[in-house]
């Protein structure tokens, strides 16, 4: 599997990244899947004005590579890419991109869902939400923990 | 060579630094290193660093058991991660 992991402050262009992944497949893979996460303007009932993302350079990349490795063991991927943004982000900004490529569509689609679910609980990031009432660091949500747990039970 | 100590997210806000450089005799176990940090940062901060939800990483690997800290190592105190 060809792994690409990038942490960056700048926005990304899904078309450029998609073409890069596809260019290296050389006909082996029959399916590609993609997911883009976008910053919401609400968390619970609070209006979010800004989201600040912090990471631990080096360890964050390793934590994401470990997720990709687990996906590869499970689905045998040809390629997997994760781009994650850090720094200040505004509602409607793109925050994360996942692209997977595999021989068949089920593997591409399922691994893409698996990777984004696991990134929610395994990737080394901290999020601080800024609203009209102030700024606060966010805890991981029970929904995220459940989504990761469900993959442990799913064949 | 000093040991680099890193704090993230809410811990960094509380302590007021993201990095500290700590001189310590080589090959300390984690417990005695924490005691040394407590002497430098105060008991309240030590309590925050050793709270049950704080994970410690040594040279970018999560600490899961007893470990030895050597000169030049990097020790990170990490509040619960919130993922991507």
Description of the structure:
The complex is a heterodimer of chains A (155) and B (84). With 155 residues, chain A is of the alpha+beta class. Chain A is built from four helices and nine strands, in the order βαβββαβββαββα. Chain A has helices spanning 14-23, 59-75, 105-122, 142-153; strands spanning 2-8, 31-38, 42-43, 46-55, 77-85, 87-89, 94-102, 125-131, 134-137. In chain A, the strands form two sheets. In chain A, strands 3, 4, 6, 8 and 9 form a five-stranded antiparallel sheet that branches. Chain A has a four-stranded mixed sheet with strand order 1-5-7-2, with helices on both faces. In chain A, helix 2 (59-75) runs antiparallel to helix 3 (105-122) and helix 3 packs across helix 4. Chain B is 31% helix and 29% strand. In chain B, helix 2 packs across helix 3. In chain B, strand 4 (55-58) and strand 5 form a beta hairpin. Chain B is globular. The model of chain B has no long low-confidence stretch (mean pLDDT 91). The longest helix of chain B is centred in the middle third of the chain and has 12 residues, at 30-41. Chain B has helices at 9-15, 30-41, 43-49; strands spanning 3-7, 19-22, 28-29, 55-58, 61-62, 68-69, 74-78. With 84 residues, chain B is an alpha+beta fold. Chain B has a five-stranded mixed sheet with strand order 2-1-7-4-5. Chain B has a two-stranded antiparallel ribbon with strand order 3-6. At the A-B interface, helix 2, helix 3 and strand 8 of A face helix 1 of B.
């Amino acid at each position: 599997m060809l792994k690409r992991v990038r942490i960056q402050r700048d926005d990304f262009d899904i078309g450029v990244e998609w073409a890069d992944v596809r260019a290296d497949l050389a006909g082996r893979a029959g399916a590609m899947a993609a997911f883009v996460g976008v910053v919401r303007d609400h968390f619970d009932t609070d209006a979010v004005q800004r989201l600040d993302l912090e990471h631990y350079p080096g360890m964050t990349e390793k934590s994401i590579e470990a997720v990709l490795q687990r996906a590869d063991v499970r689905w045998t991927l040809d390629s997997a890419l994760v781009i994650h943004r850090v720094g200040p982000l505004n509602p409607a900004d793109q925050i994360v991109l996942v692209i997977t490529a595999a021989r068949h569509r089920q593997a591409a689609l399922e691994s893409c869902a698996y990777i984004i679910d696991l990134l929610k609980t395994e990737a080394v990031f901290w999020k601080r939400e800024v609203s009209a009432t102030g700024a606060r660091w966010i805890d991981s949500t029970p929904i995220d923990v459940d989504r990761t747990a469900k993959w442990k039970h799913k064949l | 060579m000093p040991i680099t100590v890193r704090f993230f997210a809410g811990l960094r806000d509380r302590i007021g630094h993201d990095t500290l450089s700590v001189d310590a005799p080589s090959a300390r176990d984690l417990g005695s290193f924490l005691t040394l940090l407590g002497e430098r940062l105060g008991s309240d901060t030590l309590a925050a660093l050793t709270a049950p939800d704080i994970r410690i990483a040594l040279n970018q690997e999560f600490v899961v058991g007893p470990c030895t800290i050597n000169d030049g190592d990097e020790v990170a105190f990490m509040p619960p991660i919130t993922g991507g």
